Amino acid sequence: MNIRTIIMTTLLFCLCITGAKQALASVTNEVKSMVDEVVRIVSDKEMKKPQNEQKRRNALKKAISTIFDYGEMTQRSMGKHWKERSPAEKKELVQLFETLLENSYAGKIESYNQEKIVYLKENVESEYADVRSKVITAKRDEFSLDYRLMSKGGRWMVYDVVIEGVSLVSNYRTQFNNIIQRQGYGELVKKLRVKSEEIKAP
Which CATH superfamily is domain 3-200 in? Predict the structure, then answer.
């Protein structure tokens, strides 16, 4: 192997390593960018006022939707029942589930009170990635808040959120399956509609 080949091989190896690090860093950066915006919203004194509740929720919805893949989350939460639904039913499910998920996530993060968010680790395997973080309260209590992402259209999108080891998607999948098995699909939609209206109510 001549000197030129050695140099080119070394450069290629270094570029591969650098590229991998940049790709890895971008996953956490995608999550951090969204979380920073959410924290900014919930920390805003004006936004905290009762009369601005709807404005705050709309701002949170906008921030969260930049990285949450509601279609993927709905499909995974429906599990084996997803393929049985018509295109119109799937569209309504995604809309209803979007409201439910936004409320679940926003409800957790709205209690933020200057806690420290620490990003611990990220794992990337092909088109899938995990970003692990923890929230440390003023009383030094901690809880884990992890994100599962997949690459879509050149971007990393969240398809699940794991809070204290409990997957939101897995939790909903169990609930949805139980309702469908015992009461039918129609009852599930009815419950989701009622819940959606409760969430939207001022």
Answer: Tgt2/MlaC (3.10.450.710)
